[in-house]
């Protein structure tokens, strides 16, 4: 940082000299500030205040129009996930219903035949929704139960045991009645499952 | 067996009105189950055959899961309820009764998509916490902090005037939140960056409380709660 500061300062001073005398201090201030700003590392997203965060998301390219309803906080995570999984962002966004706040799942069918296998997949998906919303790979217990009921894979007597069996594998922690936290393997599988539900990239 | 059946019937009749109030089950089905259970309870106190008791219980056994349990599971697992729980979960245990009341009200606001109201309630919880912390440290300490702040030059210290000194809780309650945040730098020993973050949160609260084009979302409320929890509740002990 500031490796060429001497040269830049000379250029600034030369420009300032070309200004009318009364405006030189202000011109120097503006040019110096511009130089300092240009030296700052550019961090993508992460707005610094709540008011900035509430601003609508930056405009999208026409081929990536994800609609205006995706919360600004969710959009960067969704785009990053889509890129990691090589899926078009709009296809990934179509797995969710952003017209409600908080956003929910669009009608999806969780693949699989065995109830316990599908229940685990539901937990992965719910955690993925949690990640997009709050950046934490945690699935709310009641939400997993509700989605399992909706997906017709809620096995009342074995539900807790099914999820607990995967602790140490795809789940880092399973707190019955509270939530399920995904492990690294779990996040990988959750992203892959979302990508599978999103379908292949039409442009590929 | 009659005793157990009576206990089941009583328990159902106890929880049934609350399920009805939640408005998540079909009222006609609840009426039918109430009637079943009343008859079952009556039968347990009279001479009745096991088959008669079984006949009265069987409609409940056959339908209650789909009619009652499944709607409750879906309701509890809806993203609105999840967001509500996450807001409550952002605050660690040990909140005062007053603070808990505000946080719970904020959480309820989220379930009915009243996000502006939720922000206001969360801020009220934070101010209740700060007021309690001031009372705990004493008004002399608060006034001492005001005196120190008044001597400082530049923003934001110049916001606080000598008249900000107080000697009672009602005066503290009348004082401006903005002043309290500035005095807090001295009294609670947080730095300018924490102050600025709190000041932004106060701005968000004020935006929510006044007409304007801002449209806070559930995520905004969740982030607001998380920040308040770490900046106020975790940092400033009572």
Low-pLDDT runs of chain A: 43-63
Q: What is the overall silhouette of chain B?
A: elongated
- Residue share in helix of chain A: 40-55%
* Major beta sheet, strand line-up of chain A: 3-5-4
Q: Which structural class should the secondary elements of chain B be placed in?
A: mainly alpha
Helix content of chain B: over 70%
Q: Which two chains touch over the largest interface?
A: A-B, 26 and 31 residues
- The total strand number of chain B stands at 0
Q: Rg of chain B to the nearest angstrom?
A: 26 Å
Number of domains of chain A: 2
Q: Layout of SSEs?
A:
The complex is a heterodimer of chains A (204) and B (238).
Chain A: H1 5-17, H2 24-39, H3 50-53, H4 74-85, H5 89-93, E1 96-97, E2 104-105, H6 115-134, E3 138-140, H7 141-150, H8 159-165, E4 171-175, E5 179-182, H9 184-198
Antiparallel strand pairs in A: 1-2, 3-5, 4-5
Chain B: H1 2-22, H2 27-44, H3 50-76, H4 79-89, H5 97-111, H6 115-137, H7 139-151, H8 169-174, H9 177-187, H10 192-209, H11 218-233
């Amino acid at each position: 940082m500031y490796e060429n500061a001497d040269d830049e300062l000379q250029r600034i001073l030369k420009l300032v000299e070309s200004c009318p005398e009364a405006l030189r201090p202000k011109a120097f201030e503006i040019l110096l500030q511009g130089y300092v700003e240009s030296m700052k590392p550019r961090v993508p997203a992460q707005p610094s205040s709540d008011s900035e965060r509430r601003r609508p998301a930056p405009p999208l390219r026409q081929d990536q129009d994800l609609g205006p309803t995706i919360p600004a906080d969710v959009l960067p995570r969704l785009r990053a996930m889509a890129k990691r999984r090589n899926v078009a962002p709009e296809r990934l966004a179509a797995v969710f219903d952003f017209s409600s706040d908080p956003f929910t799942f669009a009608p999806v069918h969780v693949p699989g035949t065995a109830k316990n296998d599908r229940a685990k997949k539901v937990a992965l998906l719910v955690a993925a929704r949690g990640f997009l919303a709050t950046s934490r790979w945690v699935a709310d217990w009641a939400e997993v139960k509700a989605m399992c009921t909706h997906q017709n894979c809620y096995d009342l007597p074995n539900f807790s045991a099914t999820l607990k069996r995967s602790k140490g594998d795809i789940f880092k922690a399973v707190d019955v009645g509270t939530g399920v936290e995904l492990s690294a393997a779990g996040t990988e599988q959750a992203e892959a499952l979302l990508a599978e539900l999103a379908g292949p990239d039409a442009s590929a | 067996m009659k005793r157990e059946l009576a206990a089941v019937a009583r328990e159902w009749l106890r929880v049934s009105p609350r399920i009805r109030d939640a408005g998540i089950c079909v009222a006609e089905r609840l009426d039918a189950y109430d009637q079943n259970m009343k008859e079952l309870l009556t039968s347990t106190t009279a001479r009745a055959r096991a088959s008669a008791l079984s006949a009265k219980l069987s409609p409940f056994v056959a339908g209650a899961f789909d009619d009652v349990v499944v709607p409750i599971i879906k309701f509890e697992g809806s993203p609105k309820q999840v967001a509500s729980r996450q807001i409550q979960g952002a605050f660690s245990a040990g909140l005062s009764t007053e603070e808990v009341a505000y946080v719970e009200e904020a959480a309820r606001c989220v379930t009915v998509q009243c996000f502006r109201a939720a922000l206001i309630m969360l801020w009220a919880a934070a101010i209740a916490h700060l007021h309690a912390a001031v009372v705990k440290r004493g008004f002399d300490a608060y006034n001492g902090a005001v005196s120190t702040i008044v001597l400082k030059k530049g923003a934001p210290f110049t916001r606080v005037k000598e008249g900000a000194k107080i000697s009672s809780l009602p005066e503290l309650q009348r004082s401006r939140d903005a002043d309290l945040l500035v005095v807090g730098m001295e009294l609670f020993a947080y730095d300018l960056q924490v102050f600025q973050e709190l000041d932004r949160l106060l701005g968000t609260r004020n935006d929510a409380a006044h007409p304007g084009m801002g449209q806070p979302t559930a995520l905004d409320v969740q982030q607001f709660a998380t920040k308040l929890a770490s900046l106020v509740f975790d940092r400033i002990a009572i």
